[in-house]
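Follow-up to my post from last week.
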Amino acid sequence: QKEVEQDPGPLSVPEGAIVSLNCTYSNSAFQYFMWYRQYSRKGPELLMYTYSSGNKEDGRFTAQVDKSSKYISLFIRDSQPSDSATYLCAMIRGFQKLVFGTGTRLLVSP
Amino acid sequence: KAGVTQTPRYLIKTRGQQVTLSCSPISGHRSVSWYQQTPGQGLQFLFEYFSETQRNKGNFPGRFSGRQFSNSRSEMNVSTLELGDSALYLCASSLGDRVAYEQYFGPGTRLTVT
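User reply:
Got it. Predicted complex:
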């Protein structure tokens, strides 16, 4: 069983929809939770990070962490075609390595 | 501030050869991590270097090695290439003096082994 599980998608939504992307994890020692966006043929770009449980908002993006359920989410409001990309969750404990989910491919149609 | 740069961007090698990839981190960043990305396995951690020392290592065979120079630039080497080594190799840099939740990735080197 992988430490971090993420549905690969693709997830197809119309422009303007609210998108929910999720990851589950098995290691309760994870402290920081990140979301990266990766466009085709590019490196991942850090979108947001959250420490421990709670919510964090940045513009149209909201990251949510529920440590009791070992579940993290990224919500995208008013989705745009330019949001079409692969979204990777990642998590880390202490000075250890980043552990990534396999990524969810999102397609936003005009 | 310039981002993370990787060279070369594309490489084609044959089985049995070796390859060296280069990564220049963001100025002031002292940690460089390397990842292999494939469609089936996603992003897998290779190793991390901080102040010229390997600080973390993933579960890859000894054919994969790396090093970091005093200016924080890093190289990774893959010897005796196999077909399964075809992948996008990404490096990421961070300050390194705290938990590396803010890692910034380069565009990657796409390696094809034939």
